[in-house]
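quick one before i forget lol
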Amino acid sequence: MPPALANDRKKAKGDNIMASEKLVITNIGQVLSGKLEAPILDGDCVVSIDGRITDIGYAKDMDLDNATVKVHAHGVTLTPGLIDSHVHPVIGDYTPRQQQLNWIDSCLHGGVTTMISAGEVHAPGRPKDIVGLKAMAIASQRWYENFRPSGVKMLAGAPVIEEGMVESDFKELADAGVKLLGEVGLGSVKAGETAAQMVKWARKYGIQSTIHTGGPSIPGSGLIDKDVVLEADADIIGHINGGHTALPDDQITCLCESCNRGIEIVHNGNERAGLLAMRTAFEIKQAERVILGTDSPAGSGVQPLGILRMIAMLSSLGDIPPEIAFCFATGNTARMRDLDCGIIEIGRSADFVLMDTAQHAPGRNMLESIHQGNLPGVGMTIIDGIVRTNRSRNTPPAAHLPEIVE
């Protein structure tokens, strides 16, 4: 990795005092905030210190001195780092589901800087006894906390609940640092009443839950219909458009209208059903509930550009402004998941993607091109104020590229 991309080294000033790492990004063409209420911000410059955003605005009004790293954006768009709300990791940057190495790094090249586990279900020999599933969840949480592939924030350690678990099991998990449940319904707990009790225990101890929605996906899973979803009352309606098989239309609209939980639309589901869920959310004026995931690795493989493809699909076929679609993969998820990233706001994590219209793509600018269904070109990713990648190896090449100038 070039020295400019490895600028996560702190520079010593004296024996024990570490200098602040200051990132300055200038000449930004457009800033997407990640916030539905104000999706585009005024300004051409963003500054971060020690991985936190400290200033947003116009360079002429800002303190740009003493930058550790300075990026000239060359007029491209800056967005929050994208968040994939639904992945199934196992260990490190390897997935046995498709025998694939470096899948997380590939997704970083698609602009994804944060991933949220919906259960480490593809682990060979995954334990289903209560002692084993708790041990695996705690270990998964630890190894992704201690090792971030390519710098990507993987929030993992999401146990699949099984029959026989009691309240003290959830307290033990929470005390050990587990904050997520794997998809309810992928284990032996499939009845709404039992799921509801366990979801309540999890919520009591600060553990967020997601429920499988639709037809079976892996051996051991089964149909989870609207009645079970509503009775279980999990925090996130996982892949409301199916993973892979969607529920009937009337059940999808019922779920959107009958509760206030997260409406998760995934790449590996039914695209038509995803559009229906999104349109229903707008009709009931609850677009803030829509979040995006890939539901990968899965039988459909790994989709490094899955979140960008979802943004382009929902914007073009759903006819919504692309800057709004970006919020589904950034600020909406950050707010629903209580994350400190996903929004361009002072004090939040300095996780950014710099992107532009793909070369020779139609449209007068990047947003118009996306609204026509085209993918943008990623020119740089930044996590915690550290440049992680330059030109993406996976997106189409961008018309203009940012560069590190000092």
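fyi The longest helix spans residues 130-146.
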